């Protein structure tokens, strides 16, 4: 049983909180402190963004985070090393890498999957890998005990939902609205209706992200989903509190966890 499945099982029906941060924003040491602070304050799974020069699914807030990380010369290998360091103190909390295919393709799928597993990564989500072309990467991940996590969009057809349901493991990430990360027009009734359809095809937990910006929106999403995924709001907290990132993000995560 994967750490991700164990985390959901341990919740006993309660909802998971999955905060996102970009590795290397504002620097590597702070990233490590943020990871531990988020866990201490209620994070059930951590989602780490792999810095990339063309983050097409991300809005301005996370784009700036990626720029800061890249200015620090943070690479995919640095991300894996960060997870290894985190695992020296925390062997329980699942870690998911979220990013784009290019760095993984450059490293090589088999080598990446092996290195990710050895570092303590539990799941991988590649934003720009459609279900039709992901088999090689998914197989490499599976061979190394890693979950392959898929995005589902509001425009995803039921046929593709069924395809994803056959291939996905860990959890499925439902993008709650059209657009990029950090968008704010969240319609929770629409999300609830879509999740009802998704559950016909998906028999693993469903997390919802994009557009969740405060305790109220987190609470509403938690009422219909298995996990609440929050990225831009966390990254903005980092951006606005230089020198106090871990403390500020910890307080935010604690409030969000209480809300759900």
UniProtKB/TrEMBL annotation:
It is an enzyme of class 4 (lyase). CDD domains: Tryptophan_synthase_alpha. It comes from the Bacteria. The keyword Amino-acid biosynthesis applies. The active site is at 47 (proton acceptor), 58 (proton acceptor). Pfam families: Trp_syntA. The alpha subunit is responsible for the aldol cleavage of indoleglycerol phosphate to indole and glyceraldehyde 3-phosphate. This is Tryptophan synthase alpha chain. It comes from Neisseria zoodegmatis.
């Amino acid at each position: 049983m994967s750490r991700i499945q164990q985390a959901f099982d341990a919740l006993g029906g309660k909802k998971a909180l999955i905060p996102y941060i970009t590795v290397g924003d504002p620097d590597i040491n702070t990233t490590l402190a943020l990871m531990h602070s988020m866990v201490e304050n209620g994070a059930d799974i951590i989602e780490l963004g792999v810095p990339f020069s063309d983050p097409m699914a991300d809005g301005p807030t996370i784009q700036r985070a990626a720029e800061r990380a890249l200015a620090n010369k943070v690479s995919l290998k640095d991300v894996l090393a960060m997870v290894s360091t985190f695992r020296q103190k925390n062997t329980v909390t699942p870690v998911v890498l979220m990013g784009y295919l290019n760095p993984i393709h450059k490293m090589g799928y088999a080598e990446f999957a092996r290195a990710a597993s050895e570092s303590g990564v539990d799941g991988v989500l590649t934003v720009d890998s459609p279900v039709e072309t992901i088999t090689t990467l998914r197989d490499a991940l599976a061979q190394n005990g890693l979950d392959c996590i898929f995005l589902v969009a509001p425009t995803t057809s039921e046929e593709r939902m069924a395809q994803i349901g056959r291939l996905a493991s860990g959890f499925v990430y439902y993008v709650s609205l059209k657009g990029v990360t950090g968008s704010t027009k969240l319609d929770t009734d629409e999300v609830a209706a879509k999740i009802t359809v998704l559950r016909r095809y998906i028999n693993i937990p469903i997390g919802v992200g994009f557009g969740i910006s405060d305790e109220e929106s987190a609470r509403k999403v938690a009422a219909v989903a298995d996990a609440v995924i929050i990225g831009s709001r966390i990254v903005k907290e980092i951006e606005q509190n230089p020198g106090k990132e871990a403390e500020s993000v910890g307080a935010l995560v604690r409030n969000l966890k209480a809300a759900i």
